[in-house]
Batch of 2 targets.
Target 1
Amino acid sequence: MFDTHCHLNFKTFDGKVSEVVERAKKAGIRHIIIPGTDIQTSKKAVELTTQFDNVYAAVGIHPHHIYSYNVERKTWNVKKELAEVEKLLTHPKVVAVGEVGIDRHYYDKTKYTEYRIDETFINQQKVFLRLQIDLALQYKKSLILHNREAKKDTLSILREVWDKSIEGRSVFHCCEPDGELLDFAKQHNMCIGVDGDITYRKDKQEFIKKVPLEMLVLETDSPFLHPEPLRSQPRATRGPNEPKNLKLIAEFIAKILHISLKELAEVTEENSKRLFAVT
Ligand SMILES: [Zn+2]
Ligand SMILES: [Zn+2]
């Protein structure tokens, strides 16, 4: 199996990445992608890939963290900030730009004081997204898209900058259950990323039945989004979500799609390898 999205570069995993990767391997998860969310976590992702086989990085600035350019730095130069991302793109284990996108969700828990979503902020997210997609095209990398409550903005930018060369190389990570997103993905040969929340969200359980199997990729989004039954366990004992739990997600999906775990594991692994052009 292939965990296409987990943040082993986050603080929760400091000093524990080796054991986490080992446990993943034992559970049958042989490939892992670590996406960056800002410059620091992108660098960390790249650094981690050098320590393990079959662990790859994506680099980029997450829309939520565009906020640091919005408020905390009065003057900023997008191209200069992105030059840092660009430098990392030449590393052989960097397979994608990500995670990048548009996010209109209001986060209660955020390091940014007085966090608010206004059109200035959204416009800055759009500036960064366009340029980061350009980088993916320029460096021939795959693209990990984060869209949260911002379907219209995301799709309009994708329609604007879409290029044939990214066909088959991009994914709506943690895809919202939405017919319009699925139609766009079908028309543009994209993948749909599915996470542990499918184990308790009825809307996602219905949605996945409409997703062609050849578009499906799995992800844990560790340390977030524990699948059931872990989600219902006390926070203190369950620990952070981690790649080995991809197996729980796969088992659940295989059951609702009425296919074997083996078939689901094989198909999604193949899809993921194609998506990120890894072997
Ligand atoms: Zn995301
Ligand atoms: Zn993420």
Target 2
Amino acid sequence: MRSHHRAIALALAACSAAVAAAWFGLHFRGRPTVVLGPMVQNVRPDGFTIVWYMHPAAPSELRVKAEGKQEATYCPASVAPRPAAGITVQRCQAEVGGLEPGRRYDYEILEVVNDSDRRVMFRGRARAAPPPEETVRVLAFGDSGTGGRHQRRLARLMETYDPDVVVHTGDLIYPRGRPEDFPARLFIPYAELLAGVPFYPCLGNHEYKLDPTETALSTFALPKNGPPDEPPGRHYWFDFGPARFVAIDSNHDGPLFAGRVAPWLDGVLAGAGDRWKIVFFHEPIHTHGKYPPADKLQWSILPVMERHGVAMILCGHNHMYERSHPLLAGRRGPAGEGITHVTTGAGGANLASARLPMPETMAAWDDRQHSFTIIDLTPEALAVRQVGISGRVLDWFELARPPERRDAGPPGGSPATAPAQASG
Ligand SMILES: [Fe+2]
């Protein structure tokens, strides 16, 4: 059995390297070239971050311009070499500031040929984070990173929905999150999305086969606003249009969530004001799939999320789609209250079946085809569609903002405590 697994892993690795080699062959013309990315990251009301990967290494710049505005040039704030499918690429990251909220900006990545000469390597367009009153479209999915045909076909369908922001619920790169697999399993399938739309991942269990600080976390440029004493990028939050999004790294044990993550999450959600609150992480709390619910998250951080009126939790891990009714403490909440738990783990990898019959807390599910989630957000309503690889909408629902905010808990909240059986 082990040799069988090894043969599959070797075949996948060879396939991944061949796809990446073909891609580099197509894009590399002997001169410095942007071979991976660019990638829009960490959008703020007044700026964004652009990350790009070059080969061969050369000095480069980012030029940003909006209609009727003075253009500005940014040198990469950090430049570092990195392996990618047999070659070394140069990772460049530039922080852009002084922008207007929600406005779109053309950008160019330039090779610095000499003091007076610049050569355009890439042209793109990105947007500063929109203000709370603007309508935005969110794309969410997880468990995608095989580099296979389902992932690629789904990626083409995602582009037609023209999202404003992408959240990924983990398992970006199968099987082990290796840097050399990032081209074929992330950068190439999502090249068009990454160049124009901010991409916010959380870490799945496959990102932990290797040290994620050396792999996924050094690939992206994520907000550094997580709990104190936790490595940056594992847990973070950002505001985008009428929502506050919180990413949590679910690859830890309950006491860490109770001791470090819950107090931080309490403050982040309390500070969200009137925004919708959407939390995403890999392992689902309410699920009826192959893997059981994550009890460690249920007792440690779910009470914090329920107390603050989180509207929706987005997860993956189980390779299927499922959606709960709005739930409070494991039961259907009164009208307009409770958290809708969504597992959107059919993002490209092999599908896994739901465990039937579904409990009455579940409102919908589909384990028959690959799919992704589209969320249209306005300040007043949250409309969700689950889109299948066939193009068919598999599920649809809407949440309306209740008349009163649901932040009913005491300021600071009560600390989460472990049940007796989970304390060891
Ligand atoms: Fe997965």
